[in-house]
Amino acid sequence: MFSRDNWKEIFETIRKNKLRTFLSGFTVALGIFIFVSLFGFGNGLINTFDEFFQDDATNVFFFFPGRTSEPYKGYKSDRQIEFDNSDLADIEKNFPMVLEYITPRITRGSLVRYKSESNNYTTRAVGESHQFAEKTIMMKGRYLNTLDIADKTKYAVIGRLVEQDLFDDEEALGKFIDIGGSMFKVIGVFQDDGGDNEERMIYLPYTTRQLLEMNNDKIDQFIVGFKPEIGYTGAMAFERSLERFIKEKKYIAPDDENGIFIRNMADALQQNQQFAGVLQLIVAFVAFGTIIAGIIGISNIMVFVVKERTKELGIRKALGATPGNVISTILLESVFITTISGFTGMLLGVALLSSLGDTLEDYFITDPYINTGTAIFATIALIIFGAIAGYVPANRAAKIKPIVALRDE
Amino acid sequence: MIEIKDLHKSYKMGSNSLHVLKGINFKAEDGELVAIMGSSGSGKSTLLNILGMLDEADSGEYVLDGIPIKNLNETKAAKYRNKFLGFVFQSFNLINYKNAMENVSLPLYYQGMGRKERNEKALKYLEQVGLKPWATHLPNELSGGQKQRVAIARAMAAEPKLLLADEPTGALDSTTSYEVMDLIQKINDAGNTILVVTHEEDIAHMCKRIIHLKDGVIVEDKKVKQVRAADYVQ
User: Fold this and answer.
1) For B91, phi and psi rounded to 5 degrees?
2) Nearest to B82 among A320, A399, A401 (CB)
3) What are the tens digits of pLDDT across the range B189-230?
4) Which of A270, A313, A316, B141 is the least buried, fewest Cβ under 10 Å from its Cβ?
5) In chain A, which residues have their Cβ closer than 8 Å to the Cβ of B87?
6) % chain B with pLDDT above 70
């Protein structure tokens, strides 16, 4: 069935029936090409989508204080809850197994001045691990460290746009800026994927902020980072036990929903991923439809090819071709054409995707790509289903009596 | 060589059944050249198709060279056709995208013969029909007579026991017809058994025996003095 002579016979038939070869090859190549491009665009869409949510770490909880709405253990309702430094220490002490880091965040707006330039910026007084929670990327200098927190240093890490606004072309590192009336030394400049607002931030040691505010130990909010390996369910359990712990410590009724608020990024991530999953599903559906259309196309062509060749097949049968010969003649030819053109279409699609790169970013398509496995799988699926679809008319042709086939004009 | 006994065949035409062959009996020996004559609808083509295993009889016996031909599946019929039979059709039935040599070598391909060998053999048979210079021409570059000679070369290439010709001169003018008949006579002279279906008297008389069919039965079966086609060919 696969002898060299057989292939020669097939090549000859293909070479001498160019229109037929072109028709079936074109259908398959186009089908695979569209499939690869569509799938790639879909992935590009998902890439864009992912980028929106990759600004911050996803293994974190944000804790915000609220006002109680129920009386509890002798405390009245409508009591303002406040966090302080002891909360950080207690959490660190009680959850060492799952806790990766914890950092406070005290947010204040301040007038910031350097020489003649001044502007209002948001300052965040934070711990050293805030860098991980916010995914702050250092461009130069360094971030705040443990020593800065312990020594309550007057150091500031400024955003890229703060540097641009205040320093123009001047080097910011090592310069002193006036933040709300106190002089801070710039020790680092950062960038952030979160957009312009994020890059107009100034980070200070939270202990320094507390010192400036009459040496108190109050915290606006804190961010807890958990170890990613505990997974989604682990994170949800951790969130519940943290909530219970804080409520007990702050004398908040367990069912009081207003005492503290928790924003769980893991949960948000889960939802985002679900959305991305739906996108993927839609893309897969459209791509699947393309492949089905391709299969239907190749089936139609196979019916046409067999119809066109009925007389020829009759002659071949009269000369001694067995039904097996007839089927393999038709199928090998079609599989050969679909394989060559299928992989051509695939390579063209991949070439298109890689040549596009980032040019379609304005249309929310970033880095369109298709993984090789999917592309090859789709191509092979089309070849196999094309062969199965071709088998039906081929089998029918093989069963036609030669005398009937010979009468066919 | 051929022995058929009480052969029946009918075709279903909607609700009606058309009884085409109503009990055919005849024998043909090795080396005979038999003409089967009859008007259209007499069943001559049907008989030839059954003899050629292109069609099946409803009942009756058919023995070819001592081998009973019955209960053939498609694959077996194809193998028998390839091994025992050569066909020449009225409309030539050459494959139009293959050149003369490739057409002639096609039965050999289905015998599993290698390309080089079968092309050599095809050229040899093309030479016998006088068309070796035309070996690389496609059928549409050949005249009707040339096409039929290619078809005869193709039928002979597989060295069949029996050559079946269905109106081999039906699509040709009389000069060309005589050329083709001359070729058939020469092949017969070499000892091959040939059956020719025709409705032309002059063609039939170039055979050695004439069988007349009418309405599905043999009405006449006679030996004739063969007219040599070569006498008419300049």
Assistant:
1) -95, 25
2) A320
3) 999 999 999 989 999 999 999 999 998 899 999 999 999 988
4) B141
5) 318-319
6) 100
pLDDT for A145-164, tens place per residue?
999 989 999 999 999 988 88
SS3 B131: coil
**Co-location of A200 and A132 in the same domain:** yes
Q: Which residues numbered 283-322 in A keep a CB inside 8 Å of some CB on B?
A: 311-312, 314-322
Look at the alpha carbons of A206, A210, A216, A221 in this order and tell me if their dihedral is positive or negative.
negative
The number of distinct structural domains making up chain A is 2
Measure the CA–CA gap between B117 and B111, rounded to whole angstroms: 12
Q: Which of B106, B114, B154 sits opposite A5 (nearest CB)?
A: B114
**CB B107 to CB A319 under 8 A?**
yes
Q: Are residues A132 and A242 in the same domain?
A: yes
The shortest C-alpha distance from A329 to chain B (Å) reads 12
Helix (H, G, I), strand (E, B) or coil at A120: strand
**Domain shared by A95 and A181, yes or no:** yes
Whether residue A286 is found in the same domain as residue A243: no
How far apart are the CA of A318 and the nearest CA of chain B, in angstroms?
7
Task: Find which of B47, B81, B138, B164 to mutate to test the A interface (most A CBs within 10 Å of its CB).
Answer: B81
Residue B123 — pLDDT band, cuts 50, 70, 90? very high
**Of A214, A249, A284, the domain-final residue:** A249
Cβ contacts (< 8 Å) between B115 and chain A: which residues?
Answer: 5, 8
For residues A180 and A43, membership in a common domain is answered with no
Please report the ipTM that was assigned to this predicted complex.
0.90
Which residues lie below 8 Å from residue A19, measured CB to CB, with a gap of 6+? none
Taking the CA of residue B129 and the nearest CA in chain A, the distance in Å comes to 19
State whether residue A19 sits within 8 Å of chain B by CB. Answer: no
- As given in the structure block, the two tokens for residue B33 are 């050249």
Say what the pLDDT of residue B140 is.
93
Residue A344, judged by CB atoms within 10 A of its CB (0-12, 13-18, 19+), counts as middle
- Decide if domain B2-95+160-199+217-232 falls under CATH 3.20.20.370: no
